[in-house]
Amino acid sequence: HASAAPLLGLLVRSLVRIAPCVALPGNHDRGGFADPVADAIRRAGGHWLPDSGRFELKNPLGGLLEIVAAGAPPPAAGIRQVVAIHNPAELDRFPPANGALVLAGHLHGGQWVLSSRNGRLHPASWFYRHAWLRRNHLGAEWIVSRGAGDTFPVRWNCPREVVLCELL
């Protein structure tokens, strides 16, 4: 809800003290909620990825890392590319560059996991082709979070999750 924008700003201010904070819109950041969310992130010192479609930073060893939105061109030689997306299906139209790391916001195929086989989560994979958590796909390494919230407050064998990645 838009009234939570101050809390979002507090979170982002806390995060940017540790490392750069790059954000992109999720399920509920559309319509009337898009502007308050983006503004809170910008005012708190975060980077709203839709503004430019890319964010570059140097790692402690001097290497360049670029965080990009879906559809970004392949990186220049020597640059590591991280594709940040909300829904893994976004990359059906814009496949990631070879060697990229794909970080997806959360599963979009269901939060009920009865079984898994070959990394695919069932029954969601019967209806949604991107129902996996980690996989090498289309020449890129994909990490898909289970997510932290619920549309319906019922999960089965799919605990809430926030993925922390240290990228060097």
Distance between the termini: 35 Å
- Helix-strand topology string: HEHEEEEEEEEE
Percent helix range: 10-25%
> What structural class do helix, strand and pairing data support?
alpha/beta
Strand content: 25-35%
What's the Cα radius of gyration? 16 Å
**How can the largest sheet be summarized?**
6 strands, mixed
User: Going across the major beta sheet, what is the strand order?
Assistant: 3-4-5-6-10-9
Q: Residue ranges: pLDDT <50 for 5 or more in a row? A: none
Shape, principal axes of CA atoms = globular
The number of helical segments is 2
Number of strands: 10
Task: Give the mean pLDDT.
Answer: 87
Task: Walk me through the structure.
The protein is an alpha/beta fold and 168 residues long. Helices cover 13% and strands 26% of the residues. The chain contains 2 helices and 10 strands; from the N terminus they run H-E-H-E-E-E-E-E-E-E-E-E. It has a 6-stranded mixed sheet, with no helix packed on it. The radius of gyration is 16 Å and the shape is globular. 25% of the residues are buried. The model has no long low-confidence stretch (mean pLDDT 87).
What order do the helices and strands come in, and which of them pair?
Elements: H1 5-16, E1 22-23, H2 34-43, E2 47-48, E3 54-58, E4 64-68, E5 79-85, E6 101-104, E7 113-117, E8 120-123, E9 134-137, E10 140-144
Parallel strand pairs: 1-2, 4-5, 5-6, 6-10
Antiparallel strand pairs: 3-4, 7-8, 9-10
Helix pairs in contact: 1-2
